[in-house]
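[scheduler] slot 2 assigned
[scheduler] job type: sequence-to-structure, two independent chains
[scheduler] chain ordering preserved from manifest
[runner] begin chain α
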Amino acid sequence: MQNNKNIKPFYATTTQSCQSWSELFPPDAVKEYDLSTPEKRSDYFMDLWDNWVETEIDLSKYKGLDIKFNAFTRYNWYTASPVREWTKANDLKEFWDYQLRGNCIRFACQDTALMFRLSL
């Protein structure tokens, strides 16, 4: 196996950019919405995704924002994404205020979706 010096170990960068479990799923919200199992969380957030269809923005239409995954760049894209930088700068919580899937982002609030679209 060849050693690639450009690839940083996952553990070396995770504390810099990833949200903690309690940030993603605050204990109060887990209790309030009964999100105690992965299945319940999956169903709940899929329902939110489905309900937010009016705020969908197709990122592939904007140069430099479309998502191209591969095994070596997926994590770096996740942490260095201009989309995630914007959401972090605007104190948006992933899953609760926005969801990013494939080349699409959806927001809980139409005003936030408009502000994001204007920032592109």
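[runner] end chain α
[runner] begin chain β
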Amino acid sequence: MCGLAGLFRKGGASAEELESLARAMTGPIRHRGPDDDGVFVVPEAGVALGFRRLAIIDLSPAGHQPMTSESGRFTLVFNGEVYNHHALREELLALGHRFRGHSDTEVILAAFESWGIAAAVPRFVGMFAIAVWDAGERSLTLIRDRLGIKPMFYWSGGRDFAFGSELKSLAAVPGFERRLDRDALASYLRFLYVPAPATIYQGVRKLPPGHLITIRDPSVPLPLPEAYWSALTAARDGASTQLVSSDEEAVDRLDALLQEAVRLRLEADVPLGALLSGGIDSSTVVALMQEALPRPARTFTIGFDRPEHDEAEHARAIARHLGTDHTELRVSGADALKVVPLLPDMFDEPLADPSQIPTYLVSALARRHVTVALSGDGGDELFAGYNRYRHGAGLSRRLARVPASVRGATAAALAAVGPGAWDQVASVATRLMPRRSRPRLVGERLHKLARLLRANGTAARYRTLLSAWDRPEALVPGAGELGDELDGILGGSSPVELEERMMLADQRGYLADDLLAKVDRASMAVSLEARVPLLDHRLVEFAWRLPLRHKIRDGEGKWILRQVLYRRVPKTLVDRPKMGFTVPILDWLRGPLKSWAEDLLQPAVLSEDGVLDPGPIRAAWTAVQSGRSPNAVALWDVIMFQDWRRRWRPTT
């Protein structure tokens, strides 16, 4: 895992200037690669490639980047891993290639030599962001892996085209303007992240997952990125070739694919472990990892001092059963709070997923012992783990049958009573129930139901389920919202089942732009490589071939993934309500973070440069502080932007 950055300048530049620019761009991302660095320049072409290396495979100088192919035609910088490089190496040896070392980087270059870039990339199994200079074609190509596990940002301005693993690299380029994109801000306030291909800055783009873009003249308008793979195509192809098999046969096939995906991700010339929460996804990965290793796997968990956020006991039980070498760190609220000041540098594009804090903490714990850690991300999106797929889809179907006038009147009645008052009613009505069985956040859920009742259409209802703010554009004067794919996906007919269309929408947006961005930035902040075996693209394609009954059964998601885990871990250790991996934001905003948040949410600070309308934000702040609303995530959304804004000072 590494950091990369570079420049393509029309008209060329001196070697000294290009090298200085490349080092200025890679300096701010040293955390992504503390082991080595390198620069490659072509003065007459105006090309500079910069690299920071976290050495994982082939720690010798033979793994140094930037690396040039045997013929001298291709030079690349590469962030990530191509896990099938041994199989590709055998093919390429048969074609006459010779290798100096044993890195996957050499294999990528030889593949480009033999098959060309466009034909080679679909052969790669892995996570990667690649920038490659083709001296023969005098072109620069950027490539991003299929699911968007590794990041790639790019910008075109005047005669310069620049790219990097993080936005802070682009900010080091002379002439780069940190000009705020108000429409992107409005979308961020809805989703807690900026949807690709946009970024928080005007004129800066994320390369979409499964795409590449080739630049031949940096001074002309950029071509559109080209897709070589997409979840949309995988879903539609899967729908047309559904798996016809018994339950046992389907579980056997998934089991074999999972074993292969985990096995491939165990190669490293440095210490390796896994992040274990005790949930279905991470427990499955760890069980398969332990099965494949000749020694106890290293596993890592953090425990919180608040029971409702603490999964450490469950992780400990899984680790004990599997026999892993387990490390657990108890984390207090004070420990977690210490992470908050680090967030604007860690996430140089605003991200408001509160689980960013525990993700950083568990990554920091693991990095004390290992350099690579497997994680269980992706299982919910592949195998229908979220409640919204099961309950949201059924609710959406039922609401579609209710006349708009009835929905509107019911919504008004529900919203007329504050969330706190609804909570009091629920507490009286359920006082005879066991405490563990009492419904939580009744008022918040009823108010969300009111918003769903007002929404017209499947896409609008799903957008409401995902939204921190109902009308985020109203918070940003003069802004609209970026277009999204929800109408096209959720309003379409393939896949047939609404639950699967919801999963597809998440795979196309939330997965890459929130979850994987969070894991990448949090883990790389401590120079830890995070690998995600559940997102092997062959597993994704197989999951789309599975009928919905293999994912949701008896009202429970991830049925087939559970069966794989049950072969290795007793049901009693894993069958429990989904807890989530987060922190008590509501309590923090009412307690230890109150004065800090109040400072960021002062009306004069909110309205600085006319970016935000303080009215609805202040009303939400007052409601949270008075106990009338538990919706702290909407405020965290604004606070994370404000804290990011204070650090990066965008122009408006």
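[runner] end chain β
[qc] chain β: Residues 584-652 form one domain.
[scheduler] slot 2 released
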